[in-house]
């Protein structure tokens, strides 16, 4: 009984982490938080992988001299997770370096602002500038006619 | 025969050696990459000739499958290995003398793409897929780091989904070896849970494959990145993603709803891509949206069950692989606003003529190869019973009309004499770009002239790839009791 | 080497030669000679085709399980002779001073010659299709070759060409859809296979096929409602190109309609299909489309002020007669329809030649800026006169015979409404061509045109040839009717029995030899009386007075603007521009969809789409 309930909780947790991560990516507009949300989602996926090979009455899949005779959990998903964690770390590092560069160029990490300025830059480079609204009206402000001018 | 593994190993080694070598001797550093790729191409051809058309399996490290990882070499994998190496060589970033980074990343891309094509283990495919991602992030970030941020986030999310999908597959079947999975799949994966695994993997891998709706990174990245990178991404990486999905469809997910899901997403991608391309105002973005549309059509082709689907999809993929990089290479000098291109075709008639040829083939004018690929698709779609395939037929036809309109709008602009208000047109394409485009166009025409034998050969590739029983029997030669 | 091999190879050789040598000034003359050569090769086949043989092309291709073959039967030969004749005369027209001036004014003469040769070559290929796949390949080649020819002039022609290619691609895709559906039913695309499988198809399936093929071919032919592209595209093409287009290009659609709808599907099957919610069947539907095509564009032609546009709109209308004749399906009607293809080609060509001759000398084709040129360009006037008599359908020209056949057939078949429609169309024809000749040649000569001379010989000789041809085939229509009879027997329509002068049936006969004889006898007597009376005196046009003033050359007394004011006052409210509205609505719908897609891809949070898709997919999958 117990293992099944714990198992259900763990599965819910893993999927929940993924959902939290996706929600974070979708709902945040701070770049760093989006990357953190990605990290959480990856953690959730890794947990799901480990769970897929887990057995409740087994020990860690490490041979400690003298031939183990107890059942072990499935080592294949654990190997997968190791690889996946490493890949994830690499990708996160790359993401952070890109974030630093983005901050250096645009001085903001708000993705709405980044998106707007980036598409304006791209369009400007491409020679198809996006229509911008002006800060001020064009031309000088018309002044009332001076006294001496004939009407 | 085992030398095929070197096509993965050698470029990988070279990728790490090149930056070091560049510090010692820039000339050697520049040449190492292309030489490695050329040697790998020779190896591939050697294996091809030695293979005599029969597939074989290599157990890496001597560990036998299903616990060990194996490389499965059939005509399809070999074809994609060959195409990867040749495309990387053709689109090699020659100009970056001071940046060995690009060389290393391209070599990494080539190595991991070969591995992806050859691998016979599900997680191994994932690892190579992530390697390709990292390499393409690096390549895309060269010029447009802000655009590649969105690409990275979407791709990361996609990887999460793929991992969840793999987890579900492992949960259901207990193995990661594709051959064993193909045997276990009909009982274990033909469930809603298996279908959800497919959906997750499809969407995850589809990020690279420009599948709707995860393709919003495409316009920005292609618009900002250099043309060679865009050519590599659009031409090569997207096809590899499609290859992964196709292998999984053939071996693991043989149910009809999987095909239908892919069909619907492909349909939406085709029509949205072409319509958005119609509104595009600059060349790279137009080509990006066109790429989305074409890949939607390729997904539709692969969603036809059986060897007809594989044949049509392969023909379309090959055609796109030839045409898109060529168009991107031409677009390198013709970047920027479409209105500013007035008279560019008159100034450089060779480039203009090639653009017209490529556009005609993309639209599908007979007797160019593009028409035959589309004809295979249409006959395949019409032969299906389900209504949704007929709808897809109509959508693809509509997308061709829209494509003809916007492509030839550009052609008309190219060949009109430049007015006073046009931006100064850069006429010099550079002999390298022009030469590569010329080579690709010549290949296209050669394909048209030898369409018969080429088609028969491609059909053989498709028939071999569509056979899961052959796959299993090759990897486990004695009818295995697993 | 069969004669067909020789013809197609020679035609391809012409194209290659012009690609290489087209820049030289004698290219036009070379081209003319080579077209004459092609015509000779075609004439070589004439005897064998007359015996009912079929010429095959030696190259048979097989790709992906589909066989492609090319062959010429009487139908192909008939259309091919018209194509080559039009090509020959157009090239002759362009080879002399017209070409020189075109090149000097900055036009791309090389492209014009190459495009013309490409059009002729691709049409010859299309006409030889031996199965549906070859038909589609030829169709696409012709479409793109026409596009090439349309783009030669630049400027306004580009927009017209873009409109054309959108219509043409839509039509081609509809044809492809039809072909692919047929393939899935018949298993192959050979004509024999399709004829065999036709009886097994359900009415709904045949309906769909007729709709798809019909729409596709109707676009090329310019039938309502797909006709909007044709006028601007043909009118803006420079001189000989426009003549070639007007003469034969749109008739490729008719060739395909005869091949697919009449030969493969069959008129009998067409009359079995019904249009839901109406009392019409498919055959009536096509007849009505034809009649509406006769009426509406012809009355649009009335309003045009540019002579080229007037002729181009006119050309759309005449296609309706051909389709009407063919769809009627009896011996006389189909003979009239097919004969009209030939007659119309000659008439339209000579009219375009005359208009472009005037444009060459005066610099304008605007009908409000011309007048009185009969004294300066008499041969062109005579050519135009012959052309409009033929087009209006009056003896002694050939147009009379084909139209008479169609009218007679309509009456005999008992179609009073269609007959009324055809008559209204003829009324519009007569009105619009009269406007053309009046505004151009009759009336008061303008001051700036006093120095105008007749067009150069290279332009006049083709006009004279065409005039003689029109007159000869008007007097002795049996010459062409022999070929029409062969076409009818090749296609499966009932054959008309003809004599040299026309037809002789139990229910009546037409003998043009007698008609023309009587007509000329009448003219002769009238001329005799006129000239022997001796009381005539030549008076200058301006030696007159009006309103108490003597006339001067500077004042304009020539009525040309708003020519049919009275008629327009009556029917102007009927010009609603519905088809243009329809076209622009479709365009806007697509534009809105495109903007939506663009905004979709420019959205801030693509992850939302990913999320929604994942949720929807998982729900669909798990439930």
TrEMBL record, chain A:
Q: What is its main location?
A: membrane
Species in which this protein is naturally found: endosymbiont of Escarpia spicata
Instruction: State whether keyword Transmembrane helix applies.
Output: yes
Q: Which residues cross the membrane?
A: 6-27, 34-56, 76-100
Concerning its family, UniProt says:
Belongs to the CPA3 antiporters (TC 2.A.63) subunit C family.
Pfam family example for this protein?
Oxidored_q2
Q: Which UniProt keywords apply?
A: Cell membrane, Membrane, Transmembrane, Transmembrane helix
Name a single GO cellular component. Answer: plasma membrane
> Which membrane topology describes this protein?
Multi-pass membrane protein
- Subcellular localization, per the record? Cell membrane
Q: Which residue stretches belong to region Disordered?
A: 124-151
Query: What InterPro entries is this protein classified in?
Result: CPA3_antiporter_subunitC (IPR050601), NUOK/Mnh_C1-like (IPR039428)
Superkingdom of this protein's organism = Bacteria
Any idea what this protein is called? Na+/H+ antiporter subunit C
TrEMBL record, chain B:
GO molecular-function terms, A-Z: NADH dehydrogenase (ubiquinone) activity
Keyword hit for GTP-binding: no
**Cross-referenced InterPro entries:** CPA3_Na-H_Antiporter_D, NADH_UbQ_OxRdtase, ND/Mrp_TM
Classify the protein's membrane topology as the record does.
Multi-pass membrane protein
- Domain NADH:quinone oxidoreductase/Mrp antiporter transmembrane stretches: 119-395
Q: Which residues form the signal peptide?
A: none
Keywords, alphabetical: Cell membrane, Membrane, Transmembrane, Transmembrane helix
Q: In which broad location class does this protein mainly occur, judging by the first location in its UniProt entry?
A: membrane
GO terms for CC?
Answer: plasma membrane
In terms of superkingdom, the source organism counts as Bacteria
Q: Which family does it belong to?
A: Belongs to the CPA3 antiporters (TC 2.A.63) subunit D family.
PANTHER family linked to this entry = NA(+)_H(+) ANTIPORTER SUBUNIT D1, NADH DEHYDROGENASE
What name does the UniProt record give this protein? NADH-quinone oxidoreductase subunit J
Automatic annotation (TrEMBL), chain C:
InterPro entries hit by this protein: ComplexI-like_HydComp, NADH_UbQ_OxRdtase, ND/Mrp_TM
Q: Name one Pfam family in it.
A: Proton_antipo_M
Report the domain of life of the source organism: Bacteria
Q: Which UniProt keywords apply?
A: Cell membrane, Membrane, Oxidoreductase, Transmembrane, Transmembrane helix
Where does the UniProt annotation locate this protein? Cell membrane; Membrane
Q: Which residues form the NADH:quinone oxidoreductase/Mrp antiporter transmembrane domain?
A: 129-419
One example of the protein's molecular function in GO is: NADH dehydrogenase (ubiquinone) activity
Keyword Signal listed: no
* Protein topology in the membrane: Multi-pass membrane protein
Locate the transmembrane regions by residue number.
74-95, 107-127, 133-152, 164-186, 206-229, 241-265, 285-302, 309-329, 341-361, 373-397, 417-437, 457-480, 512-531, 603-622
**GO biological process, any:** ATP synthesis coupled electron transport
Query: Is Cell membrane included in the keywords of this UniProt record?
Result: yes
The entry's cellular-component GO terms read: plasma membrane
Q: List the protein's name.
A: NADH dehydrogenase subunit
Q: Which organism is it from?
A: endosymbiont of Escarpia spicata
């Amino acid at each position: 009984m117990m293992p099944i309930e714990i198992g259900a909780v763990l599965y819910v947790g893993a999927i929940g982490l993924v959902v939290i991560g996706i929600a974070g990516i979708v709902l945040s507009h701070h770049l760093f938080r989006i990357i953190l949300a990605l990290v959480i989602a990856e953690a959730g996926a890794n947990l799901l992988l480990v769970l897929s090979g887990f057995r409740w009455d087994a020990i860690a899949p490490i041979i400690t001299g003298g031939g183990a005779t107890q059942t072990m959990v499935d080592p294949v998903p654990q190997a997968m997770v190791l690889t996946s964690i490493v890949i994830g770390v690499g990708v996160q590092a790359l993401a952070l370096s890109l974030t630093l560069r983005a901050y250096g160029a645009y001085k903001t990490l708000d993705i709405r602002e980044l998106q707007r300025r980036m598409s304006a830059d791209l369009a400007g480079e491409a020679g198809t500038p996006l229509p911008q609204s002006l800060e001020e009206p064009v031309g000088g402000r018309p002044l009332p006619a001076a006294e001496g001018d004939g009407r | 025969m085992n030398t095929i593994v070197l096509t993965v190993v050698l470029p990988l080694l070279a990728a790490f050696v090149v930056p070091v070598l560049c510090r010692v001797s820039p000339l050697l550093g520049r040449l190492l990459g292309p030489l490695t790729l050329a040697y790998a191409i020779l190896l591939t051809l050697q294996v091809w000739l030695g293979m005599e058309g029969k597939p074989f399996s290599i157990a890496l490290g001597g560990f036998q499958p299903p616990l060990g990882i194996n490389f499965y070499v059939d005509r399809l994998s070999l074809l994609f290995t060959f195409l990867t190496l040749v495309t990387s060589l053709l689109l090699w970033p020659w100009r970056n003398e001071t940046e060995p980074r690009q060389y290393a990343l391209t070599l990494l891309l080539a190595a991991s793409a070969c591995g992806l094509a050859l691998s016979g283990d599900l997680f191994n495919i994932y690892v190579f897929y992530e390697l390709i991602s990292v390499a393409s992030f690096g390549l895309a970030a060269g010029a447009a780091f802000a655009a590649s941020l969105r690409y990275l986030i979407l791709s990361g999310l996609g990887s999460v989904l793929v991992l969840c999908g793999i987890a579900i597959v492992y949960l259901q079947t207990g193995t990661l070896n594709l051959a064993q999975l193909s045997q276990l799949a009909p009982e274990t994966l033909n469930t809603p849970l298996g279908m959800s695994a497919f959906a997750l993997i499809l969407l995850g891998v589809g990020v690279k494959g420009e599948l709707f709706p995860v393709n919003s990174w495409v316009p920005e990245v292609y618009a900002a990145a250099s043309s060679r990178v865009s050519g590599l991404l659009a031409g090569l990486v997207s096809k590899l993603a499609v290859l992964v999905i196709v292998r999984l469809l053939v071996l693991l997910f043989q149910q009809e709803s999987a095909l239908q899901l892919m069909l619907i997403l492909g349909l939406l991608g085709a029509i949205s891509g072409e319509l958005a391309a119609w509104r595009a105002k600059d060349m790279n973005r137009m080509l990006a949206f066109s790429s989305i549309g074409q890949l939607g059509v390729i997904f539709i082709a692969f969603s036809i069950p059986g060897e007809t689907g594989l044949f049509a999809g392969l023909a379309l993929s090959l055609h796109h692989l030839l045409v898109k990089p060529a168009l991107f290479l031409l677009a390198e000098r013709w970047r920027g606003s479409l209105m500013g291109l007035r008279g560019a075709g008159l100034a450089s008639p060779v480039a203009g003529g090639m653009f017209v040829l490529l556009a005609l083939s993309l639209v599908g004018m007979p007797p160019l190869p593009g028409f035959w690929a589309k004809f295979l698709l249409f006959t395949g779609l019409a032969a299906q019973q389900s209504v949704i395939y007929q709808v897809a037929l109509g959508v693809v036809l509509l997308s061709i009309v829209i494509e003809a309109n916007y492509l030839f709008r550009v052609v008309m602009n190219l060949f009109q004499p430049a007015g006073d208000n046009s931006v100064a047109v850069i006429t010099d394409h550079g002999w390298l770009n022009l030469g590569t485009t010329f080579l690709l166009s010549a290949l296209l025409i050669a394909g048209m002239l030898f369409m018969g034998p080429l088609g028969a050969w491609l059909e053989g590739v498709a028939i071999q790839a569509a056979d899961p029983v052959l796959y299993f029997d090759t990897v486990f030669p004695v009818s295995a009791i697993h | 080497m069969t004669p067909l091999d020789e013809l197609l190879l020679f035609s391809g050789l012409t194209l290659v030669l012009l690609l290489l040598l087209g820049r030289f000034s004698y290219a036009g003359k070379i081209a003319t000679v080579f077209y004459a050569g092609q015509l000779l090769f075609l004439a070589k086949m004439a005897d064998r085709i007359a015996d009912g043989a079929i010429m095959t092309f030696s190259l048979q291709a097989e790709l992906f399980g589909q066989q492609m073959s090319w062959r010429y039967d009487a139908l192909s030969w008939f259309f091919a002779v018209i194509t080559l004749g039009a090509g020959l005369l157009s090239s002759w027209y362009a080879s002399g001073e017209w070409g020189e001036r075109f090149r000097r004014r900055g036009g791309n003469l090389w492209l014009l010659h190459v495009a013309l040769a490409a059009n002729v070559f691709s049409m010859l290929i299309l006409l030889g299709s031996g199965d549906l796949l070859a038909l589609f390949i030829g169709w696409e080649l012709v479409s793109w070759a026409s596009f090439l020819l349309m783009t030669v002039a630049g400027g306004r022609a580009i927009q017209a060409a873009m409109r054309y290619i959108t219509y043409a691609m839509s039509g081609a895709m509809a044809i492809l859809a039809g072909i692919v559906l047929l393939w899935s039913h018949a298993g192959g695309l050979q004509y024999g296979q399709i004829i065999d499988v036709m009886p097994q198809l359900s009415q709904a399936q045949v309906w769909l096929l007729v709709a798809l093929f019909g729409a596709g071919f109707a676009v090329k032919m310019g039938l309502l409602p797909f006709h909007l592209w044709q006028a601007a595209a043909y009118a803006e093409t420079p001189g000989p190109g426009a003549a070639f287009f007007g003469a034969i290009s749109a008739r490729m659609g008719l060739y395909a309609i005869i091949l697919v709808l009449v030969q493969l599907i069959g008129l009998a099957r067409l009359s079995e299909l019904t249009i839901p919610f109406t009392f019409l069947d498919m055959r009536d539907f096509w007849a009505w489309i034809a009649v509406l095509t006769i009426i509406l564009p012809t009355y649009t032609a009335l309003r045009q002020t540019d002579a080229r546009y007037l002729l181009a709109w006119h050309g759309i209308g005449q296609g309706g007669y051909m389709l009407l004749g063919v769809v009627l399906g009896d011996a006389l009607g189909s003979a009239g329809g097919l004969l009209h293809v030939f007659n119309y080609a000659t008439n339209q060509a000579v009219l375009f030649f005359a208009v472009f001759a005037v444009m060459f000398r005066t610099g304008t084709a605007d009908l409000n800026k011309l007048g009185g040129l009969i004294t300066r360009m008499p041969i062109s006037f005579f050519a135009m006169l012959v052309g409009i008599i033929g087009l209006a359908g009056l003896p002694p020209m050939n147009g009379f015979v084909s139209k008479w056949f169609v009218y007679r057939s309509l009456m005999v078949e008992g179609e009073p409404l269609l007959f009324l429609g055809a008559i209204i169309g003829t009324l519009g024809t007569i009105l619009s061509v009269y406007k053309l000749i009046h505004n151009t040649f009759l009336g008061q000569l303008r001051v700036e045109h006093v120095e105008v001379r007749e067009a150069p010989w290279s332009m006049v000789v083709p006009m004279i040839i065409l005039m003689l041809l029109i007159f000869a085939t008007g007097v002795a229509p049996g010459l062409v009717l022999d070929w029409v009879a062969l076409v009818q027997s090749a296609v499966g329509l009932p054959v008309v029995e003809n004599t040299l002068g026309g037809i002789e049936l139990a229910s009546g006969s037409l003998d043009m030899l007698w008609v023309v004889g009587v007509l000329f006898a009448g003219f002769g007597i009238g001329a005799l009386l006129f000239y022997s009376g001796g009381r005539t005196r030549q008076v200058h046009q301006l030696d007159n007075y009006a309103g108490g003033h003597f006339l001067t050359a500077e004042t304009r007394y020539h009525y040309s603007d708003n020519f049919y004011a009275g008629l327009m006052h009556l029917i102007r409210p009927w010009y609603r521009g519905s088809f243009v509205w329809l076209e622009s609505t479709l365009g806007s719908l697509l534009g809105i969809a495109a903007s939506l897609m663009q905004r979709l891809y420019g959205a801030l949070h693509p992850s939302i789409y990913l999320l929604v898709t994942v949720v929807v997919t998982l729900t669909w999958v798990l439930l």
